[in-house]
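Lecture notes, part 5. Sequence design as translation. It can be helpful to think of inverse folding as translation between two languages: the language of shapes and the language of residues. The source text, in structure tokens, appears below.
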């Protein structure tokens, strides 16, 4: 059964934020901070695991492994990026089954051609609206937990079809049974307001740092009318900045132990070494 927390938070009508998780170290830190929900980001999980771009190169099997691992490590329920469903209708069916079995709470599909592109990069191509509607219907039908395993439908139409095309597609995806609708890569707060006011279904915001969409304070997103916002690139880009500085200081200044390092002892305990040590004490032979 999927974790009901996502459905419950949406039904409460209170805006919330969801951090993107790119690797299991980030998941451990997110556990410490405390989040009810986390987002398994396709772009950053692909980058961290294989050093590849989010361009449909990672396979269903590879991404399923990443999501299953993240669902195990994270104490927050997992919203998972599933790209296009990795192919046609049968692939979508298979992806829903696999992700739900892996412990995912919600799955997100987009209306790009396969292989897809990151929503904030050029050369995206969309499938026909009718084809995406069929994918959503298949996804809705494939899930076992009809109440708590939620389907998120994303459109990348803004850059090729404008706001009219974006709204037309979202309306169709709403009617097809999507639980949450997701207009990707909007370019202004005005467009964000238009998207939110046109639907009764929850609308999600993608706060992708450096992308097409502005990243206002969370309180502004709440006023605009979003149900929640994901922050897929935040932890990755912050980590890149910190790593670049530390490595530059090491190379140029010989600094191997900078100030403000996270405690090695605490991290070891949070990753599970405390249980290993307990096991050793119980079973070690002198």
């Amino acid at each position: 059964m999927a974790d009901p927390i996502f459905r419950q938070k949406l039904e409460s009508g209170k805006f919330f934020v969801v951090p993107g998780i790119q690797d299991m170290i980030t998941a451990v830190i997110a556990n410490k901070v405390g989040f009810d929900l986390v987002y398994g980001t396709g772009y950053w999980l692909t980058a961290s695991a294989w050093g590849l771009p989010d361009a449909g190169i990672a396979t269903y099997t590879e991404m399923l492994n990443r999501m299953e691992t993240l669902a195990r490590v994270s104490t927050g329920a997992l919203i998972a990026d599933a790209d296009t469903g990795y192919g046609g209708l049968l692939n979508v069916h298979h992806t829903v089954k696999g992700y739900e079995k892996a412990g995912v709470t919600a799955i997100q599909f987009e209306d790009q051609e396969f292989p897809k592109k990151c929503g904030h990069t050029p050369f995206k191509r969309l499938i026909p609206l009718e084809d995406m509607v069929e994918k959503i219907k298949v996804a809705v039908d494939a899930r076992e937990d009809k109440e708590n395993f939620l389907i998120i439908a994303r459109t990348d139409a803004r850059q090729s079809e404008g706001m009219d095309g974006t709204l037309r597609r979202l309306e169709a995806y709403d009617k097809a049974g999507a639980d949450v609708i997701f207009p990707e890569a909007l370019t202004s707060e005005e467009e964000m307001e238009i998207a939110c006011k046109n639907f009764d279904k929850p609308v999600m915001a993608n706060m992708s740092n450096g992308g097409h969409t502005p990243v206002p304070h969370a309180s502004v997103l709440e006023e605009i009318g979003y149900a929640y916002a994901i922050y897929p690139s935040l932890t990755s880009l912050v980590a890149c900045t910190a790593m670049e500085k530390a490595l530059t200081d090491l190379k140029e200044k010989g600094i191997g132990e900078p100030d403000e390092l996270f405690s090695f002892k605490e991290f070891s305990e949070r990753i599970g070494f405390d249980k290993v040590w307990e096991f050793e004490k119980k079973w070690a032979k002198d």
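The translated text above is only one of many valid answers, since several sequences can fold into similar shapes. The chain is about 50% helix and 15% strand.
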